[in-house]
Amino acid sequence: MKADPKGVMTGAYFIDGDHACAEGAIAAGCRFVAGYPITPSTEVVERIAERFPLIGGMFIQMEDEIASSIAIQGGVWAGKKAMTVTSGPGFSLMMEHLGLAAMTETPCVFVDVQRAGPSTGLPTLPAQGDMMQARWGSHGDYAIIALCPNSPQESFNLTIKAFNLAEQYRVPVLLMLDECVGHMTERVVIPPADQIEITPRRYWEGPKEDLLLFKADKDLVPPMVKAGDGYNIHVTGLTHDERGYPDMTPAAQEKLVRRLVDKIRLNADAIVEYKEDQVEGAEIVVVSYGITSRVAIPAIEQARAEGMKVGHLRLITAWPFPTKRIRELSTTVRGFVVPEINFGQMVREVERWVAGRARVRLVPHGGGSVHDPKDIYAAIAYVGKG
Amino acid sequence: MTEETMDTDISLPTNRVEDFLRMERLPHIWCPGCGIGTTVNCFAHALDASGLDLKKVAIVSGIGCTGRVAGYMKLDSFHTTHGRAIPFATGLKLANPELKVVVYSGDGDLTAIGGNHFIHAARRNVNMTVILINNFIYGMTGGQVAPTTPIGATASTAPYGNFEEPFNLPYLAESCGAVYVARWTSFHVRHATKAIKDALLKKGFSFVEIMAPCPTLYSRRNRLGDGLDQMKFYRDNSEIQNGADTKTVGLSFQGKIVVGKFVDKEKPTYLESMNAFYAQKLGDQFTPYKG
To answer: Which fold has domain A1-271?
Structure first.
């Protein structure tokens, strides 16, 4: 279906990635946002707070991030599309409810505008240190989807995509900005509403008495309903059966959690998105995401100018990770260079799928700024010689 | 607030509780002599008496013995995380104001780990009913000390007795802004039923505390006998003081229990305040929030 024109601010704007995220959420049909102020994500909720009273949305500033991350789930079960927004310390507080959303298959969006940590770290400065937390931060096993925009325009586009994926797979989707993308101001084009594709909630359409809220369709995704429609649904964070009733057995655990993981793993081909530049025939591939994908460009261009065959693979979905593509490339390239603003997170995933078939060189950065492209160039040159 | 006569004439001609329960989930997990089941009975009768459209009633629980109530009610029911029933309920209610949202959970869940959410929901006057079953202990995890454990009572993590000042819950609720506050015990089934019914029909943040025995962990450890002995204690030591100043209704170990309806006042709810405020500030630009 197409976006509701009410709230879609069609036009060209000069705005930052945080504001673009807010507009993306509105265009995606989000009408419930709960948040708690934290730098460098606050501009998202500030814009939402200003815009929602004009378009019939509900914004509430909760007492903390724990509350925000579960209030949105109440909002979803009441029928809204809902989002919360935070940064590092708040993201840590939200982890239990990321798990709740995964376990109860509550479609919602968590935005994390990453800053340097651990702990309070560098509140106003960038990092990409929450990438593994996004995947594994809540206890137990589950799967999520995480997207990494590298510009304000993509922040707008991928926020819409995050809502669409959340609905399609009944899963929490994480939008992993970094402080640079969040605060970078660029041209953002918001298309007319009739050019914005929206995935509606997959409401149960069968006979009322036949509903099983946690019985999956062929694509491993169960149907949704909302409170107040007379289904007497039960939703619990306990291990549950297809009715949603607690079932404290290893068999129920195996069935449920395997499906929660498989619904993303087995649909990964449809979910995974990345962009390639001159990867075919490359000897060295730079794998990057977020702001680092832009910082890597001068390094890649310099290496190419010197005759090296360098490709660039930019992750748009960090999770699920493009495992097939990395494995495939690992048989043809000499090596991979992975710059990221942390001491080695997504590089572990690259190494896992390369499995020793090619060299993998991390270009670490502790956070607080972006890489010097010279360091990325040096890593490309090093792998090229090896 | 003036003294008023409680109308306790709620007739219970037949046991219609089954209509409100997920019978396929019984037997429940609660111990013999536990008071939680009694409060569920009261809740079912209160729902019946309230005349509310049950399709539009949702119940939210946290974690713990009382946290299991949501799972037994034949309503839209949500069993959330420990301490977070209230913020989930806040989202549910604000996203669909047509729903009557009830939070049903225990003293540890709502006032220890969930204390921050409790005070803020009361402050905002979010339109919801909070039913808190106070058994003075963490039952599910084996009888640990709680923010409600009276001074002198022992618990598994207070083996020599509790020395911390416990919460006076009606006072806490009132001071944070609750518009309806009552306390009863699981002995006072008719009063408790009436209080729940009134709370369900009250506009704004309504709060009902119901004391209930935990014979397995609280009573046994403190040598207070079984569930029936606790019910006798409630009968013999409760004093109905409707309209009592909530400052004065704190509980002590096996001391006098002041019960009654303490607060019943009118105040605009969160959504009423929001809509009125924005309508005045933004005029025609405002799109009134309807959920």
So the answer is: Rossmann fold (3.40.50)
What are the backbone dihedrals phi and psi of residue A146, each rounded to the nearest 5 degrees, phi first? -130, 135
Report the top-level CATH class of B33-285: alpha beta
The pairing of strands A317-319 and A145-147 is antiparallel
**What are the domain boundaries of chain A?**
1-271, 275-385
Q: Which of B56, B87, B93 sits opposite A62 (nearest CB)?
A: B87
Per CB-CB distance under 8 Å, the chain B contacts of A230 are: 55
3-state secondary structure of A95: helix
Judge contact between A30 and A51, C-beta under 8 A: no
Chain B residue with Cα closest to A104: B80
For A227, nearest residue in chain B (alpha carbons): B76
Please answer yes or no on whether A246 and B92 come within 8 Å at the CB atom. Answer: no
What is the H or E stretch that residue A112 is in? strand A108-116
Burial profile B18-54: b = 16 or more Cβ within 10 angstroms, e = fewer: eebbbeebeebebbebbbbbbbbbbbbbbbbbbebeb
**Which residues of chain A neighbour B105 with C-beta distances below 8 Å?**
none
Sign, Cα dihedral of B87, B89, B92, B95: negative
Q: Which residues contact A115 (CB under 8 A, 6 or more apart)?
A: A39, A40, A87, A88, A121, A122, A123, A124, A125, A126, A127, A178, A179, A367
User: Which residue, among A308, A337, A310, A313, has the nearest Cα to A324 in the 3D structure?
Assistant: A313
Instruction: Name, in order, each residue with C-beta under 8 angstroms of B193's C-beta and a sequence gap of 6 or more.
Output: B10, B42, B43, B45, B46, B49
Q: Which residues in chain A touch residue B96, judged by CB atoms under 8 angstroms apart?
A: 78-80, 226-228
What is the per-residue pLDDT for A105? Answer: 98
Tokens standing for residue A121: 């770290």
- Token couple for A265: 């793993």
Using CB atoms, pick whichever of A70, A235, A246 lies closest to residue B87: A70
Would you say the C-alpha torsion B126, B130, B134, B140 has a positive or negative sign? Answer: negative
Tokens at A151, concatenated: 């510009």
- Using alpha carbons, select from A31, A21, A169, A64 the residue that is nearest to residue A106: A169
Q: Which two tokens stand for residue A305?
A: 């100018």
**Choices 3.40.50.920, 3.40.250.10, 3.30.365.10, 3.10.350.10: CATH for A275-385:** 3.40.50.920
Widest distance between CA atoms in chain B = 66
Q: A234-236 and B76-79: which strand pairing?
A: parallel
Over the stretch B114-149, which tens digit does the pLDDT of each residue have? Answer: 999 999 999 999 999 999 999 999 999 999 999 999
Q: Which amino acid is at B194?
A: K
Three-point CA angle B130, B105, B164, nearest 5°:
100
Say if residues B163 and B151 touch (Cβ distance below 8 Å).
Answer: yes
ipTM for the whole complex: 0.97
A187-235 pLDDT, tens digit per residue, is 999 999 999 999 999 999 999 999 999 999 899 999 999 999 999 999 9
pLDDT digits (tens, 9 = 90+) for A111-130: 999 999 999 999 999 999 99
